[in-house]
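Same chain as my last thread, 292 residues:
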Amino acid sequence: MPAKQLSEVGIVPSAGVMPTPGSVPPTWSRFRYPQSLYKYGALLGAFAFIAFALDYLKIPMDRLPGMLGRMGEMLARRYFPPNVDHILNAEYWHTVVETLQMSYLATVLGIAISIPLAWFASFNMTPSRRYVYPIARLIIMACRSVHEMIWTILLVAILGFGMLPGALALTLFCIGFSGKLFSEAIEAIKPGQVEAIRATGANNLQAFIFAVLPQVRVAWAGISIYTWDVVFRAATVVGFFGAGGMGQYLRESVQRVASRDVAAILLSIVVVVIISELMSAWLRTRVAKAIA
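reply #2:
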């Protein structure tokens, strides 16, 4: 039977069937009916759920095509051109420095707390899977479950306005963010080095220092830099809720309905975040080359 007819019935040609000269033999695979049925059934169910959600939430689909045009018209009428002179003053740049300080302090404190928590919350290296592991996991999940803005609102209500509630809110956010990534990096290590260190009579702390840290140091360095990048982005807006920094300057402009001032502040936030992104990418590359 020719190869074309074999392919139509789903039979893979044997090694004895030679292709025609000058042609590349295709790679045939048998059609598997049950797996394809499950795949297409899952896709159909996903599309059906999307249609149900759109109908249940009463989303007006007819208004979406003209949304971008109306948004562009509003931005051009109210927010353009940005009042750049509003951000070219010493007071505003002082808030930028405050935001950098707040994000740096929160990152250092959060990572310092996340390192032992990640050790306790890693299933393969925790000192106690029955007691320590669930408590450490609960702390990390609690910090991750609440958004940093909610933490800011709660801490501002308790501690009052200022940089302290913002730094504490970002620290809690950092614990949840970096703690989860640190623990997952520990759970992905190779157990051979740990078993070799423990065979010498080392305790849990010594096994963690001499067998775990050498395997996760590159990953942890990249995670730490990325955590600072994420925390800095969050720090630019926590001040909107009374925690100081650039966000507080933005809040004052919004309350005065100074749209062009708001546009200038948002533009400066975008520029500062882009610079921090470039810096974090450069640092991750340098650290990976230095440690590897």
